[in-house]
Amino acid sequence: MTETRPVPASAEQIAEGLSRAIHEHRLGPGAKLGEDEIGAVYGVSRTVVRAALQALSHQRLVTIRRHRGAFVAQPSIREASEVFEARALLEPRMAQAAAERADTAAIMRLRAHIAAEHTALAAGMNGRSLYLSGKFHIELARIADQRIVAGFVEELIARSSLIIALYWRRQSALCERHAHHALIEAVAAGQGERAAELMHSHLVDLHSALDLREQSYGPVRLREILSRSLEQDGEASS
Amino acid sequence: MTETRPVPASAEQIAEGLSRAIHEHRLGPGAKLGEDEIGAVYGVSRTVVRAALQALSHQRLVTIRRHRGAFVAQPSIREASEVFEARALLEPRMAQAAAERADTAAIMRLRAHIAAEHTALAAGMNGRSLYLSGKFHIELARIADQRIVAGFVEELIARSSLIIALYWRRQSALCERHAHHALIEAVAAGQGERAAELMHSHLVDLHSALDLREQSYGPVRLREILSRSLEQDGEASS
DNA sequence: AGGCGCCAAATCGTATACAACCCAAGCCAA
DNA sequence: TTGGCTTGGGTTGTATACGATTTGGCGCCT
């Protein structure tokens, strides 16, 4: 076990590290993010940690409550719906633009993403496969070459990860494979309209795979209220 | 001249104050935002000021360059185009949704905005009228009751203010009056499609009123490169 | 026994201190 | 005169110190 990491890190690196941990569900919604604790891990003082936490709170990944500390955000049901509505508004356009602009290098990057996703899934690293699945959408938005909307999409996908942690119902991630594969085909063929449609239905699929009914007092909701710190270590490879 | 303001302010208040100053073009693109200076104005230490500046930099209103300080952002031509493309994607939908959901109270708020805009314009307060004109769009997005997209719109409008400061060509703001009025009519009548169309053409209008050609080496561009501190004083009333 | 209030430990919010760094003015040499 | 180098002032980056607030536990009263 790595005890301490004496090498100091920058605020961006810390934000990136926490972001990854949230994406990969090693940190669940409601988890406490103590400043001293994080500072000890990364070998910096609270000043830098606070900057990182503020950055994450501006991305709505973290909620800061005055005099109480920072916690991994717990999107409400309403927010969850709005996130997917926003994605349904933005991402089909991005897929369309991507299909119209993608070159061979871009398509290879997309295929590489899918491959990595499959590998992670086969190795049982569910968190990582989820992370990569999000990255696929981000990569697609980047190919569309509209940086601002791509930035919005990135934020929405980060929040989606939290939503999935809270409200996911189905187990099978197989639909993902299929949907992403079909998307690549359309993009590679330059079929913009088809890519947009596929993306739309993919998002509707995802949205409908959530359990967003008001009184879903499942075990997830319990954890949300009790908010145990639930630390996982588990150094990922590199 | 008000010398000092001994009452301490919170980071959010400072960010709000700076944001307003940028919106109203009292602070132009490229202006230096010294931490000590701002701290002295608001009666707080650099710690709080830094938090405010970081918040603004996450909204892309301010650029922080390491060891050099914070400056009011200077959107590139490319960014300018993308901002208006993104607005053209989001805002018509918001206008449509607003038209479908607006109640009488909401419409009264919109009318009040227009009235305030006219008042400011008549009083020659151009900066303020620009600020209110942006607020109109934000209010419309809020009425649409999609908080997340409304947040995106808010960010885009803030950046639009910078873009207008850098690249505005026409003088007349009269088109605004007309366009906003027509929008309210459509919203009040519940004509969603028409509101969306009006919003779209309004945005295209705005976009085309910018001078985004590459080699526009006007005085604006010069100021951008030389980046003199160009302090504006000019205490506005209140 | 149960509820209420006080106290202590822990954590956050802000200010301040010091180190690192950038920029500009001044100097020297070519 | 011009170019590069050095040095000083000023500004930012980070750490640390201290005050403020919350929280959980302990004891006391009912």
Unreliable residue stretches of chain A:
216-238
For CATH, the homologous superfamily of the largest domain in chain A is named as GntR ligand-binding domain-like
Approximately what portion of the residues of chain A adopt beta-strand conformation? under 5%
Greatest contact between two chains: A-B, 20 and 20 residues
Rg of chain A (CA only): 18 Å
Q: Report helical residue fraction of chain A.
A: 55-70%
- Helix and strand content put the structural class of chain A at mainly alpha
Q: What is the oligomer described by this structure?
A: homodimer
- Total domain units of chain A: 2
Structural shape of chain A: globular
What does this structure look like?
Two copies of one chain form a homodimer. Chain A is mainly alpha-helical and 238 residues long. Chain A folds into two domains: 11-74 and 215-228, Orthogonal Bundle (Arc Repressor Mutant, subunit A); 77-208, GntR ligand-binding domain-like (Four Helix Bundle (Hemerythrin (Met), subunit A), Up-down Bundle), CATH 1.20.120. The first copy, chain A, has ten helices and three strands, in the order H-E-H-H-E-E-H-H-H-H-H-H-H. The first copy, chain A, has a three-stranded antiparallel beta sheet with strand order 1-3-2. In chain A, strand 2 and strand 3 (69-72) form a beta hairpin. In chain A, helix 4 (77-101) packs across helix 6 and helix 4 (77-101) runs parallel beside helix 8 (174-188). Chain A is globular, with a radius of gyration of 18 Å. Chain A starts with 10 loop residues before the first helix and ends in a 12-residue tail after the last helix. Chain A binds chain B through residues 50-51, 54-55, 58-59, 79, 82-83, 85-86, 89-90, 93, 146-149, 152, 156, and chain B through 50-51, 54-55, 58-59, 79, 82-83, 85-86, 89-90, 93, 146-149, 152, 156. The structure holds a DNA duplex (30 and 30 nucleotides).
